[in-house]
What does this fold into?
Amino acid sequence: MKQLFPVLYATLVAMVVMSISTACERKEPVRVSLKAGSQVVASSARSEQPLRIGMGAMITPKEGYVYYQRLQAYIGKRIGRQVQLVDRDNYDEMNHLLETGGVDAAFVCAGPYVEGKVKFGMELLAMPLVKGKPIYHSYIIVHRESPIKRFEELRGKVFAFVDPKSNTGKLVPTYMLARINETPDSFFGRYVYTNSHDQSIRAVAERLVDGAAVDSLIWEYTALKNPKLTEQTRIITRSDPYGIPPVVVRPGIDPELKRRLGDILFSAADDAEGREILKGMMIDRFVAGDDSNYDTIRQMNRWIEAQRKGKK
It folds into this structure.
């Protein structure tokens, strides 16, 4: 992998740390060790183990974190059980927690859901509807003053991916390159992983990179909540639609707990408190998960793998 040159990399890391440290009163979720035999420690003396819901900075802009906290409280009140938010820094770690029982449910990216279902039986619970549809796109963005107008013009430039397992932040642009017989290594001059979509947006806005691939939902959310940032960027490519990031549960979860959690999410749009939380998350409502919604991602994976094998 081509690494970002030292000065730019150090600047990007400093930017990410500063952004996290200045987040407005963001309460840190529980951190869970991935070491074998580790135990989740409840934050209260209650004997009943809390319901652990995974989320991460990869898919949660800091501007929207308050609504995840409110959803946490909303679920806890209706399920009659303490709820903990469990944070991880990348998709692999969150999938590992789901596989090993470190969390009971999680908000995950569509790509890691497809992988987790095959690898260890991750179960689809719910899909959010945004503007009436369970889909989203990958946006390829550049600085607003950049002369670049097409994805192909990013050849030899510095590019930001989100995470190696991100659908919109890595898989989709990799597929776009494969369609023109290229790879990230052969096409870009250098590339970096920022670990979150909002940090990729910021990297473009501050001209730390020439372009980036980001989640359309997060770009649109940031445009609403922090327009000064997205106004420094310009969308040059909007991908085909793909299945939206879902809510999933770990394999082996108690069926009754799964049913109750699903019922709470599905009915959230039907009461005032739930509607207000969903509005803040820019979600119309949650609906039952449909695994076929993610077939286009599987098709991309198969095509990229076939191309890779064909070059050997």
